[in-house]
Amino acid sequence: MSAFLVAPANALLRPPQFPSCSSARADVVASPVIPQTEEQRWRQLLVPLLAGCRDIPRLKQIHALVLRSSTTCIPSAASSARDFIFLYSRILHVAASDAADLHYATRVLNHLLLLDDSGAVHLPTASSFFWNTLIRAHARSSHHQHAAVDLYRRMLLDGRVPPDKYTFPFVLRACAYLFALPEGEQVHGHAVKLGLAPDVYVANSLVHFYATCGRLELACRIFDGMSNRSLVSWNVIIDGFVAGGRYEDALDLFREMQREFTPDTFSMQSLIGACEGLGALSLGMWAHAFMLRRCGGDVPGDVLVNNSLLDMYAKCGSLVLARQMFDRMPSRDVASWNAMILGFAMHGLAKESIQTFASMQEEDGVKPNEITFIGILSACNHGGLVSEGRTHFTSMASVYGVGPRIEHYGCMVDLLARAGLVDEALDLVSTMPCKPDAVIWRSLLDACWKSKAGVEVGESMARRVFEMEEEESLTSGAFVLLSRIYASANRWNEVGLVRKLMSEQGIRKVPGCSSIEVGGAVHEFLAGDTRHPQSEKIYAMLRVMEERVGLVGYAADLSQAPMVAEHDDERRRSLRLHSERLAIAFGLISARQPGASIRIFKNLRVCRDCHEMTKLVTLAFGVEIIVRDRTRFHHFKDGLCSCADYW
């Protein structure tokens, strides 16, 4: 047998000669031997071969031997049929493993079904394994999730075997990947009819499916109805809340989970994602320390966990800790390099981002991908590096074989427009191989306002945005930008018309929301918020701030409040109640030590007036303020900002 196992591939085409029982030594007292059929001896030889098979050509040779293992090529005896079906199950498993050859695996299943139809073999009633193996392989593949759903539909139409508790997790995984909500809901209905919905594996898959499709209320309903939850159940629902932007709810669930289970690395990755979304640096540092205590030496070598920590530190405003994580990683993949490049970019350190990209190219086995160039182009955009941006944009396809997507065109258009090269940006838009979306036109509209390109150009860009958004739904962004263009030109009548149009369309400006972490708790503020328990102290500090910055030259920019009434007093009052100012005031009264950094996170882009105000607050109070807005970080210190007023 050993000689057969090490024989060259072509030797597999010749069936081996089996030794007869009479060749045993006569002087050896042998125990009773149960006679074996030829098919059983074939099985003993072929199963080890299948277990060690790793390539399709060799698998096909073994498959041919299975077909030749019977004189008729189709087994007739019940034992032979069982051996035949067992070997076919192993062949199907190997063919479908790691998406080796899904087409070949499908043909194997088709052959089995044909043999069963002809009566040559009789598949057992519990033969869902064959379907499950193939559905799982397609669901886990890169581009065949549609085929997984089609196989499930075919399984139902075939009717010879019903789905079981192993079938539904695979099908629901494919539906989640495809965001196929109607199909997944039908699969859910099938699971309920078969009485399998309460099964923990099926229920976990349903929670994941609905959370992935954005139906968190249904995911919660299933999770709440589970009588037997596993750690996976908690991980899935927590990750769903993080993906849905409900970070505080995710933290509450994490605390509740700890009463029943010890968090694993998947739990901690979701927790890190929640900290990242909230900008809760101290909570993220606690999560890091918790992982080191519970997981010990497993954390430093886990690339996925390290990437999550690196990304969290960068997005929570501590680029120093992010760089330390990156430098100490024993191994890095392309996601590690991308996280560091994007981290430098969002903090406005364009040169460091480009240098990291250069170092990445010296790393063996790591090649830039689409996300890498989004990071590089974003860095050039934040740094105003037009020439470097052009070079990297051109080299994407010519040097690295990465075709530009609409996100890359968007970065390039924004880079050119913000640099005042509106005509060149429009030329790039006109030559794009894909249709420009509302985001690109909105970038041009924003650039028109910042570069003072003129009311007529701004109106033209706004019309483009409205045309694109009418296909889906109108948002307030373009209206606000257009009103700012009119306000900058002192055309207040047009500003009023924009407000009236928004009112008629039922469009409301997205409210500004700023958060700050103090003592491990995250405090959120809306514009003009009075809900906080310390509101009186906050507004008292706000008045002190205004007095001090007034002494160092602050003057309100009323054009930044175009959506309020025409009276200057009303605009001035609107500006002073912006959410980031309330958060800064709370940070000043909550500082445990003089000069401690204040970290603010805002859902919208910082307006020009608040940007100037924050610079002067750092000068008047001697503090450092770090603000993360919708697009980037601003590090304010000594009356200056890291963006150099270019954002």
TrEMBL record:
One Gene Ontology MF term: RNA binding
InterPro entries documented for this protein: DYW_dom, E_motif, PPR_At4g14850-like_plant, PPR_rpt, TPR-like_helical_dom_sf
Residue ranges of domain DYW in the record: 553-647
PROSITE patterns, sorted: PPR
Keywords on record: Repeat
The keyword Repeat belongs to this UniProt entry's keyword annotation: yes
Protein name: DYW domain-containing protein
Lineage of origin: Eukaryota, Viridiplantae, Streptophyta, Embryophyta, Tracheophyta
